[in-house]
Amino acid sequence: MRFEQTSDVLDHVGLFHQEAGAMFRKLRERASNPRVRMLLDYIVCHEESLARNVLSYKTECSPQLLSSWFKYAHDKDIFAPLARVDVERDPTFDDVLDLAVENDAKLLELYQEMVDRSTSADVRDLFSSLLLKEMKEKQKLIRSALGLLDI
Fold first, then answer.
1. CA gap 20, 40 in Å, rounded
2. By CB neighbour count within 10 A (0-12 exposed, 13-18 middle, 19+ buried), where does 128 fall?
3. pTM
4. Which of 15, 23, 64 is nearest to 40 (CA)?
5. Domain limits at 132?
6. Each residue of 75-86: pLDDT tens digit?
7. Distance from the Cα of residue 100 to its chain's centroid
8. Are 36 and 92 spatial neighbours (Cβ–Cβ below 8 Å)?
9. Do residues 131 and 112 touch, judged by C-beta distance below 8 A?
10. Would you place residue 1 in the very low, low, confident or very high pLDDT band (cuts 50, 70, 90)?
11. Number of neighbours of residue 144 by Cβ within 10 angstroms
């Protein structure tokens, strides 16, 4: 196990959202289906918004909270789903939605683990808040995607 600070986890998550947004933009360039392009546009905005949210958490948190140390044993790589994407092929609606949902699931898993491993109530509250926000974002994403299918 290695030790990590709260700020390191937030940096990791922010980088994840930036890379996910860039990958979804690449998929957007390949997409030929208008619904898929609309979904990708939405997801790119979704990832950019989440990256800004993480940055805002970092700027609003106290330095003491950000420098809190804890044992971090999250063995699953949240970047793994992004690494498996073939950005050279024309993505289907289901491919894009499945990837977005898998990304959200990885983040939910990470946040839950951080809640479970936090020894500080403030750090636990921070990751609980991020967990709740990510759950809401996942629901919003699915609702929006289903709405696109009705168009």
1. 11
2. middle
3. 0.90
4. 23
5. 2-149
6. 568 998 999 999
7. 9
8. yes
9. yes
10. very low
11. 15
Which residues in the chain belong to E strands, given as ranges?
2-5, 69-72
Per the structure, how many domains does the chain have? 1
Strands 2-5, 69-72: pairing kind: antiparallel
Evaluate whether 17 touches 48 at the Cβ level (below 8 Å): yes
Q: How far apart are CA 84 and CA 99, in angstroms?
A: 10
Amino acid at position 26, single letter: K
Placement of tokens 């990470």 in the chain: 110
| Cα 24 to Cα 15: distance, rounded to the nearest angstrom | 14
Q: Which amino acid is at 146?
A: L
CA–centroid distance for 149 within its chain: 23
* 75-122 tens-digit pLDDT: 568 998 999 999 899 999 999 999 999 999 999 999 999 999 888 899
Residue 49 structure tokens: 């918004």
- Tokens 């926000």 appear where? 133
The two three-digit tokens of residue 43, written as one number:
């997801």
**What's the CATH number where 105 sits?**
1.20.1260.10
Distance (Å, whole) CA 119 – CA 39: 39
Look over the chain and give the mean of its residue pLDDT values, rounded to a whole number.
Answer: 90
